[in-house]
What we know:
single chain; mainly alpha
Amino acid sequence: MQSVRNSILSHMRLRCSAEQLSFAQRGNVLKQFRWKMCTSAGTSPDQIMDRVIRLVKKFDKLDATKVTETADFQKDLCLDSLDRVELVMAFEEEFSIEIPEEKADKLTCCADVAKYIVSGGEQKNVNPE
């Protein structure tokens, strides 16, 4: 087990840039690692979009046939604020990320959610020291 752990850690160290190292030094190593594992090299933006759409279609309070990349959660899919909070929680669980409330309010469709996830949204919110 120790050799597997060491192998993973050495692989992660080899792929770190200077920016990522400074990010890791600020105490967010686990968040960065979790984000890298969920959106790792094998996951393209199209695959993330597909996962987002599939997750929204599973939401039992809406008609799955109306779900598209640009369908507005509130206007087109008729989700109220509580439903949108539940949806954001589902995105956080599916992609192992945290979406701050002020950012979640701006995610109005599947395309917005996918862009946020691809961009590594939570990493861009870190203030440089």
